[in-house]
Design a protein that fits this description.
about 130 residues, Arc Repressor Mutant, subunit A, about 10% strand
Length: about 130
């Protein structure tokens, strides 16, 4: 199944699940979302709808245990972020890595530590 970019709300659900220990139940997810996001956005029925959509898209799988469903991640965060980065690179930098790096790094808040980290990362990549 080909992964597709998630709408913001579904991404927020996945981002929260990625931080949790599996299995995740809707009750656990609701509790976590209440702590990290405005409660008005996350009604229990909305969360259940999002979980069903994410399962249908292949991001999650679930198992029913009694009255509760337990959810398990099928798409790791790193895999999804790589997809997002590739989409972003293609869309905004014409597919060029240098264009993407320039766009991301051409700000006033880029520190010397950031530059040193990038330089080390590039040197490691060039040795592969």
């Amino acid at each position: 199944m080909e992964l597709k970019k998630l709408p913001d709300a579904e991404f927020e659900i996945m981002r929260t699940i990625w931080r949790m220990t599996e299995p995740v139940t809707s009750a656990m997810l609701n509790a976590q979302l209440r702590q990290t996001s405005p409660a008005a956005l996350w009604k229990p029925q909305t969360v259940l709808t999002m979980l069903t959509r994410l399962e249908g898209k292949g991001y999650l799988r679930s198992e029913k245990h009694g009255k509760e469903r337990e959810y398990y991640v099928l798409v790791p965060q790193e895999e999804y972020l790589a997809l997002e980065a590739e989409n972003f690179r293609q869309r905004f930098a014409g597919g060029r890595f240098s264009g993407l790096v320039k766009a991301l790094c051409d700000t006033d808040d880029l520190t010397q530590n950031d530059i040193d980290d990038l330089r080390r990362w590039l040197e490691e990549r060039s040795r592969k």
